[in-house]
Write a structure and sequence with these properties.
This is uroporphyrinogen-III C-methyltransferase. Residues 4-160 form the Tetrapyrrole methylase domain. Its EC number is 2.1.1.107. Pfam families: TP_methylase (PF00590). The protein is globular. It folds into two domains: 4-117, Cobalt-precorrin-4 Transmethylase, domain 1 (3-Layer(aba) Sandwich), CATH 3.40.1010.10; 128-159, no CATH class. The longest helix is centred in the middle third of the chain and has 13 residues, at 64-76. The chain has helices at 20-28, 40-43, 64-76, 95-104, 117-124; strands at residues 4-9, 31-34, 49-52, 80-85, 109-112, 138-142, 155-159. The chain is of the alpha/beta class. The protein is built from five helices and seven strands. The protein is 28% helix and 21% strand. The chain has a five-stranded parallel beta sheet with strand order 3-2-4-1-5, with helices on both faces.
Amino acid sequence: MRGKVYLVGAGFGGPEHLTLKALRVLEEAEVVLHDRLVHPGVLALAKGELVPVGKEGYGEKTPQEAITERLIALARAGRTVARLKGGDPMVFGRGGEEALALRRAGIPFEVVPGVTSAVGALSALGLPLTHRGLARSFAVATGHDPALPLPQADTLVLLM
């Protein structure tokens, strides 16, 4: 029997920023591989085994290949797995790499979007990304390499 992997976004803060689908997946997953940036209140909602995989900036971390191999092995063993990431799994979260590896391995998976801090945190503060007459576009970029050119937009959000 083949399992399934869910690439789940935990949102930009505590449990109140989870989507209902993310909550359901956390309650049903047998194993939850999670990043260190996930809020402890979100982790407390998981019913299955919690496995920290240590993805946080430039600190100690589990190599991406090891995480991907573990996702595939657990799914092949018939387990339901949640890969829990802060924000949205497809925004600077390596969700695209994991989805590609799962697809190549023939593992069923589903992406459960989360509210990215690039949008949610600013909205929660009452700061619009767009505003009629002032800003009609926005871009999100990583701030890791100051030598790289920044995208052109009326509003620029730099993450990590």
